[in-house]
Amino acid sequence: LAENPILGAGSRRFRTRRRNLSGLTVTSVSATEPESFPNFRSKVPSSEPSSEPSSEPSSEPSSQPSSEPSLNPSLSAIPTSEPSSEPSSEPSSQPSSEPSSEPSSEPSSEPSSEPSSEPSSEPSATPSCTPSSAPTESPSKPPGVNLFYPDWLNNGGEGCRNDGDEPDYMAVNPTDWLSSTMEACCKKFFGGYLFETCMGRYPPDHDDCNVMLYYPDWEGSNKGCINDGQEPYYMLSNGKYFFSNSLEDCCEKFYEWDFYGCTGTMPDLTNGEYYPDWLGSSSSTCLNDNKMPKYMLNNQVWYLSKTLKECCETHFFWDVNKCLGTTAVGSGKWYIKWSDSTCVQDCVGASPCGGIAESWDETFSDKNTCCKNKMW
Fold first, then answer.
1. What is the 3 state secondary structure string of the chain?
2. pLDDT single digits (tens) 144-172
3. Which pLDDT belongs to residue 163?
């Protein structure tokens, strides 16, 4: 055993002696083997990357990103804190679990495999390229109002409809053939034992049957719209104008000035609940019992007030104290009392008090000023 002069201390070489057949002794030297490899750290990076990645990442990131992305990106379990500035060149294989906060600026090139659970808030600007797979079960109802006519061609010819498909000869003679309610139509054309069959032919919630239409009650109480089927004949001649599918539509069209009285509804009182009681037992007071005339609800800003004082000052400014139910004490100032041709004090009691001044009386701080300005 000897030290290797090339490798230095810490290395060993071996001599081996063996005798051959001729009796000579041969000495051979085995390959040297270091006891351990020295731990050298290179200060210059290698010219080529290692064939396999390191088992653990470096403790600090590199100062600059690589010029090309890795062929096999890492699959991090946690996303980055901020999104990338530009989207990836190819879409991901699976969609994200939640939708983005804002819609994309342009629609996708291909439609989704399934429709959305709710319709969009606005219709699309252009129709779809292909129609739906199946048409609707019944055609759309013609717009506007349609009167009832005897349907002798469908369902055994024992019913009335208002789908707008009445024959032309009925349309040009509406007073003879058309009615404003299903009941009136059934009584007129399917009276007797067929009446109940006619009334039950199309249930009240059928798509093309409103059962009855509303018209303005001008020849009755004239307080709103009714749907009793007793409309004047002239209204049948122009049914699309005089009749409405709902009470609200009729009231809005013919009783807009008293819409809430016509519909019998009460809106939100946004301007307060006090109103002037001009028709009550006291004609100079304000109430808040929610019994105000319906016409006041159409102009709440003018008729309604948030406080009693505000209502009294607006609608009974000439007698605010009576409206408020308080006793007036006067301001103590002076005003001219024409009936006595003298200036009196704004107060109640003995002279010089002349009673409470009216709202239109001009007042002064003292009697001399009042006389100088009024008694000339």
1. CEEECCCEEEEEECEEEEECCCCCEEEEECCCEECCCCCCCCCCCCCCCCCCCCCCCCCCCCCCCCCCCCCCCCCCCCCCCCCCCCCCCCCCCCCCCCCCCCCCCCCCCCCCCCCCCCCCCCCCCCCCCCCCCCCCCCCCCCCCCCCEEEECCCHHHCEEECCCCCCHHHHCCHHHHCECEHHHHHHHHCCHHHHHHHHHHCCCCCCCCCCECEEECCCCCCCCEECCCCCCHHHHCCHHHHCECCHHHHHHHHCHHHHHHHHCCCCCCCCCCEEECCCCCCCCCEECCCCCCHHHHHHHHHHCECCHHHHHHHHCHHHHHHHHCCCCCCCCCEEEECCCCEEEECECCCCCECECCCCCCCCECCHHHHHHHHCC
2. 788 999 988 876 777 888 888 899 999 99
3. 86
pLDDT tens digit sequence for 190-239: 888 788 888 876 554 444 445 789 999 999 889 899 999 889 989 998 98
Residue 369 near residue 362 (C-beta atoms within 8 A): no
